[in-house]
Sequence to fold (422 residues):
Amino acid sequence: MKRTEAALTHNGSAPRSARGSGVLGKRGAFLSAAFVLALVLWSSGAPSTLYPSYAVKWDLAPVVITSIFATYPLALIVALPLFGNLSDLYGRRLVMIGGVLLIALSTLLFAFAPHVGFLFAGRALQGIGSGLAMGAATVSLIENNPRSNPRFASTMATVATATGLTLALFVSGLLSQFAPLPLVLSYIVLFVLALATMTTLLMTPSDRPPTRHRWRPQAPHVPRGIRLSFMIATLSVVLAYSMGAIFLSLGAHMISAFAQTDNKAITGALLATSAASIGLTALLLGRVPARAQIWAGTALTVLSLAIMVAASIYGSVWLFLSWCLVGGIAYSLTFTGGLGLINSVAPKHHRGATLSFLYLIAYFFQAGTAIGVGALASSGTLSNAVTAAAATLTCLCLLAVILLKLPARGGPQGVDPLSGSG
Fold:
C-alpha cells in the first residue's frame, strides 16, 4: 500500500506540467499555501470574540449571531460547486490570490459596518474568498510537499489552520479589550495580513497548466473506487466542522454566561486554548495512520460532546475549558485524519474538485449546526440547544464507526483505500 500511495501522490507532490519562474521556489510555494490556510481560518475566527459586542451594540438575539456566523459556510456552499475546479484549470496560485483578495475586501465591510447587514455581507464575501482559496491551498500543500511522507501535507494543513484560528481569537480578544476602536482594529490587522499574503503568492512560481480548458460549473462528483473512503473522510471533517460551529458561534456567549465577565481578552484566551490544542495535537500526528486518527477522533468527539453538555448544564467555566482542550484534540484528529485519507486516494488530476466537494459537505453541516443551535438557544435555553446538538453529532459519530467497519473496496488502480496507513 505504501508504494501505491507514493505513486498516487508522487512522494506527496504531483507536479504541474508547467511551472513558471518565481523568486520563491517549491518550498516557498508550500509555505505560502500554509499562510493562505492560516489566513482563511483567521478571517473565519476574527469576529468570534466580538459577537457579544455586536449583540450589545445592535441588540441582537443568539439566532442572529449564529446566522451571521453561518453566512460564511453558506457562502462557501454556493461557491464551491461553482468554483471548486478552478484551480485544476488555471493553477493553484492564481485562485489563491483571488480568494485572498476577496477576504481582504471583506475586512473593510467589517471594519466600517454601520449596521448588522454589513456583517452578513462581510461574512458572505469571506465565505466566497475562502471557498476559492482553501481547496487550492490544500492541493498546493500536497503538490509542493517537501517531505517524502504524504501525510506531512495534511498535518501541515491542520497546523496552519489551527495557528490562524489561535492567533485570530487571541489577538482580536486583546485588541478589542485594550486597543482603541475595538470593532475596527482587528480587521485592519487582517487586511494587512491579506495584502502580505498576496504579495508572497505573487513571488511563488506559476503553476498554471499548459493545456487551457474553458471553465464551467462542475457538478459535484467523486471518482469511482474511492467513494467509501470519501464518505469516511468527509464525515470525519464534518464532525470537526460541526463542533467548530458550536464553539465559534456560541463560545463567547457561553464564557460570558459561565465566567460572568465581558473581558474580551479573557474570552479570546479561553477560545484560543482550543485552537492551540488543535495545532499541538497535529504536530504529534505525522506518523499516525489516517484511519487510526479518525477512530481516535470519533471517540474523543463523543467525550467532548458529553463535557460540552455538562458545561452548559452546570455553567462551569472549568468544564468549558476542558471542552476546549478535549474538543480541540478531537478536532485535530478528525480533521487531519479525514484530509490524510482523501489525499492518499484522490486522483491528482481531480484533487481540487474532490477536496472542494468534501469541504462543501462539511460546511453545509457547519451552517446547519450553527443555525440550529442558535434557533434553539433563542427559543429555549442554551443547555437544551447544546444537548440537542450533542445528540445529533453523536449519531454522526456512530455512522462514522459503521462506515469504518465496512469491508474495504478497491480504489483507483486496484488500490484498497482503507488499507495501510492512509
Residues 306 and 386 are 10 Å apart (CA to CA). Residues 1-20, 410-422 have pLDDT under 50 and may be disordered. The two ends are 9 Å apart (CA to CA). The chain is about 75% helix and 0% strand.
